[in-house]
Amino acid sequence: MRVSLRPTARATGHPGYSQTLPCAAESAAEARKLVRVVLAAWGMDALADDGALVVTELVSNAARHAGSRRIRVTVSRPATDAAEIAVIDSSPRLPEARAAGPEEETGRGLALVDELTEDWGTESLPTGKRVWGLLTCADAR
Length: 141
Fold this sequence. Notes:
Blueprint: E1 6-8, E2 16-22, H1 27-41, H2 48-65, E3 70-79, E4 82-89, H3 109-116, E5 119-125, E6 128-136
Antiparallel strand pairs: 1-2, 2-3, 3-4, 4-6, 5-6
């Protein structure tokens, strides 16, 4: 399956890319492709595995908790050595990190995002929310 990239025009710097997908766990595979293609194009291959995990967790959380029909996955480059991965959904409910017990199969997603990213957070939007993670690397072009 081919990844369809939609660049976002910016006044300066690198373009951002986004893709609208169904709000379903199965969309994580397409989101991973988007992240890997964009990071490779930017010479940030060292971030590909972490970026794929981050977007998988963000998409999974949206699919499980948002109740949206669609999500938008975005990949932007706020600095030469940084990539920001975000998932936007229509739910106003902000995610809550929790401590999962050893026998629980879920509840570790945001802890994983926190571990893999330089920073992460949420932003309330008029039509829902945006959950993002910032990855950095020293060897970007």
